[in-house]
């Protein structure tokens, strides 16, 4: 049995201890070893987002015990500032953020700040630190993307959703867009599921009610809300 390059220690360092423990069935499989081999080769051969050190950032910044809300996106974006490993997040707080992130900021600004929020954190690390898992369904993407990374990551992100569904019932899921909403029937049994259009499907202002709906649920469940 050849030693696995991506063994227990690698995963604890990449994901944090609790995530690694709860995902261990998947992580110790030959699938996980193959996945990481593929990812390494891709970074060596192509231009890939996010930076390699940020692949698992969503898990590091939102440890297992603190997960209360899950916001899903399809894949990291390739915009000018660059994806940072958090769904919708950008490396820098700037005016050059991805269109989706700008729509999210505009919506939050209208809903909570009367149209003026000078402190919006475009990295979204602030949300992650409050228990919002910002999960891309594929954690890496080629700059010239033709969907090469979609399938390799599928089993990994399914495993993440499975363990959350099983061991963290009562989680709030925010599903934007038709593709993500296909998961609703599976998640609705044990959790709270909120839905709306994906920001990229919005050609006008994106008036998403999910932030306020999530706050209402969080207040009932934990007595506190997220500072969006």
Q: What are its keywords?
A:
four-stranded parallel sheet; alpha/beta; two-stranded antiparallel sheet; globular
Can you summarize this structure?
The protein is α/β, with parallel strands linked by helices and 228 residues long.
Structure description:
The chain has eleven helices and six strands. By secondary structure, the chain is of the alpha/beta class. A four-stranded parallel β-sheet has the order 3-2-5-6. A two-stranded antiparallel ribbon has the order 1-4. It is globular, with a radius of gyration of 17 Å. The mean pLDDT is 93.
Return the structural class.
Answer: alpha/beta
Per DSSP E runs of 2 or more residues, the count of β-strands stands at: 6
Read across the widest sheet, the strand sequence of neighbours is 3-2-5-6
From the structure provided, what is the oligomeric state, counting identical versus distinct chains?
single chain
Order of helices and strands: HHHHEHEHHEEHEHHEH
Mean pLDDT: 93
Shape: globular
**How much of the sequence is in beta strands?**
5-15%
Please outline the helices and strands.
Layout: H1 8-15, H2 17-22, H3 24-27, H4 30-45, E1 48-49, H5 57-61, E2 69-73, H6 99-113, H7 125-128, E3 132-136, E4 141-142, H8 150-167, E5 172-176, H9 178-181, H10 184-187, E6 192-196, H11 210-222
Parallel strand pairs: 2-3, 2-5, 5-6
Antiparallel strand pairs: 1-4
